[in-house]
Amino acid sequence: MEIQGKILEISDSQQITQTFKKREFVVEYAENPQYPEFIKFELIQDKCSLMDGFKAGDAVNVSFNLKGRKWDDPKGGVKYFNSLQAWRVQSASDGANATAASAAPETSGMDQMEEPGWINGGGDSGDDLPF
């Protein structure tokens, strides 16, 4: 998934355990400018450094995965948690250039595919069913 927005906040990296660290940041997502959304993302491990070159106010494209976890409460209850785990953050101006470049006509390979023999009548059995 990917969204474009403006960075509002960038937190420092947090060392959660000896082997796990994370960093959070908030993006203002204004698909409808009258009602902007404030979306908190997290970066983990080596991805924490992705925010080093950015500051509040920068327009960015954020590529992320939606993560969901189930936790069994020791009291017998069940809780669910969601997180948005970013894996790429680019300046919106860089993303615009990448989008323009990818909009160039390319062949996807679909035009070079052939229909199976049973569709165009090329079969040994002579009937028109493929099974």
What does this entry look like structurally?
A hairpin with a 5-residue loop joins strand 5 and strand 6. With 131 residues, the chain is mainly β. Strands 1, 2, 3, 4, 5 and 6 form a 6-stranded antiparallel β-sheet that branches. Residues 97-113 have low confidence and may be disordered. It has one helix at residues 92-102, and strands spanning 2-10, 14-17, 20-29, 37-44, 59-72, 78-91. It is globular and about 50 Å long.
Spell out the blueprint of helices and strands.
Layout: E1 2-10, E2 14-17, E3 20-29, E4 37-44, E5 59-72, E6 78-91, H1 92-102
Antiparallel strand pairs: 1-3, 1-5, 2-3, 3-4, 5-6
Query: What distance separates the N and C termini?
Result: 39 Å
- Which structural class best describes the helix and strand composition? mainly beta
Instruction: Give the averaged pLDDT, no decimals.
Output: 81
In sequence order, what are the helices and strands, one letter per element?
EEEEEEH
E-strand count: 6
pLDDT < 50 stretches? 97-113
Summary?
The chain is 8% helix and 45% strand.
List keywords for this structure.
globular, 1 helix, 8% helix, mainly beta, six-stranded antiparallel β-sheet, 6 strands
